[in-house]
From TrEMBL:
The keyword DNA-binding applies. Residues 165-265 bind DNA. Residues 165-265 form the OmpR/PhoB-type domain. This is Winged-helix domain-containing protein.
Length: 278
């Protein structure tokens, strides 16, 4: 009996290793959605069961970066202000609402989430109702396969793009294209390196808001727990101002001594940003 138990534990461990290895071997080399938007948080308290592993494998195989949330400690380890674009919940466990609330508090916004129905659950109907009433974008029975999950994720990505484009109704003043990282400012076409584009995009979409060094360092880190020296941010803001000099917009990037920066366009200029993926 003891040998059988050890054998089952060993097989579960090997299964997990094989699933993760195969997922990375099948990672697509061409991803059209911005990489930062392909990060998915997978809430699954029993992550070592076959169901959550199959979902994670399907996500990674389709080019997503998956971060598991199995307990409250996993949520508390996340950096303040981390960008969370999509959340997938497997099986709607009892603490799902708490995990989602903590994720919202950490990233300062409500991220859309999908709920995967466990095919072994006898009361999947009531689980679906509870998930939808809690705000889930969709309830997806896993028995229907990964195609439906990927279709819903593409729909959420399209809706996110549309919301970005609706940020402004005055095209031709400042236009941002997140995919190509091109910026059009009063007729001037600019291309910004990745980190400079992220800084500029964040500041422009938070006009007249005092943004701390910590917030901007988190933008540079893309939610990862890596150390970035404070002087790195100073250098990048300096480079950004130099690039923007010909447009005059560099004057709108104000330094707040001892705190951070603020993007202050003239008061008569409102809703001046149009984000596009054309």
């Amino acid at each position: 009996m003891f040998n059988i138990l050890l054998g089952n534990i060993y097989l579960q461990h090997v299964h997990a290793v094989v699933m993760e290895t195969l997922a990375w071997l099948h990672l697509p080399t061409c991803i059209h959605t911005p990489p930062e938007e392909r990060r998915i948080f997978l809430i699954a308290p029993n992550a070592h069961q076959s169901g959550p592993q199959e979902v994670e494998y399907a996500l990674v195989k389709n080019g997503y970066r998956v971060q598991r949330i199995t307990s409250q400690q996993d949520v508390e380890k996340l950096s303040e202000g981390v960008e969370i674009y999509h959340v997938v919940v497997y099986g709607w466990p009892d603490n799902s609402r708490e995990h989602l609330r903590f994720l919202r508090d950490i990233c300062h916004k409500t991220a859309p989430f999908l709920v995967i129905g466990d095919s072994t659950e006898a009361d999947s109907g009531s689980i679906a109702v509870a998930a939808i009433e809690a705000g889930a974008a969709a309830f997806i029975p896993w028995a229907l396969g990964e195609g439906l999950l990927m279709a819903h994720l593409r729909r959420l990505a399209d809706e996110m793009t549309i919301r970005r484009m609706e940020l402004a109704k005055l095209p031709g003043q400042i236009q941002l294209d997140p995919r190509s990282r091109r910026v059009s400012i009063f007729g001037h076409e600019l291309y910004l390196p990745k980190q400079l584009f992220r800084l500029f995009e964040y500041m422009v979409t938070h006009p007249d808001e005092a943004i701390s060094y910590h917030q901007l360092l988190q933008v540079l880190a893309e939610g990862k727990k890596i150390y970035i020296a404070p002087n790195t941010l100073v250098v990048k803001i300096y480079r950004l101002r130099r690039i923007l000099e010909d447009t005059g917009v560099h004057r709108w990037l104000e330094t707040i001594p001892g705190f951070g920066y603020r993007f202050c366009p003239p008061k008569h200029v409102t809703r001046l940003v149009e984000q596009s993926t054309q």
